[in-house]
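Entry 14. Ran structure prediction on the chain below.
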Amino acid sequence: MSVRLTSVRLLLLVALTSVFALPGTAVAEAPPGGRITLDVQTVNGSGCPPGTASVAVLSDNTGFRVTYREFLAEAGGNVDPVDFRKNCQINVLVHVPQGFTFAIASADYRGRARLEAGATALQRTNYYFSGSPANHYVDHSFSGPLSGTWQTTDATPVTQLVYAPCGESRNVNLNTELRVNEGSVNANKTSAMSMRTTEGNVDTIIHFAWKEC
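Output, structure tokens:
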């Protein structure tokens, strides 16, 4: 069984007007030709122990890819109670070509779920720029019985994109978590939700929108 959920939500708080590009700038029709580089500042959390997650720029400059190898939340049966929630916080410093700035336009998530009848699960991600006083999160909920792959997409309307300041390298923060609740119907059975490379093509893809400064 395959599940696909799509949500159009605001990824970054539009009230943070200080991180918008200057009014009147033109939206770039394509990513810049110059090279984008990423400096991964931190990767930590119960869902990404040291050495189990990696971040890489997409070759076409449209964003970056996050790969997890041990991101698994479980509940019920003989599972350790603390395993019902797993998270991973990633802080990436994005260096962009001169004359351009970027916003997070959308994000694609994939994984597998095995939820018994009565069990539920949640995938949540916070998005924010370092130095901003607030952030915003997007939730996707799942209900059992469910067995198979899942995919979700968070997308920001063009009119609500929040851009990093022109001329500055800005840290992007992503805090993703998975939660599983075994429920009361089949609490003696294990339910799980994951984003692991051992289960095929389950990379997380973060897509940028570009604007000329």
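The CA atoms of residues 32 and 179 lie 38 Å apart. Will compare against last week's run tomorrow.
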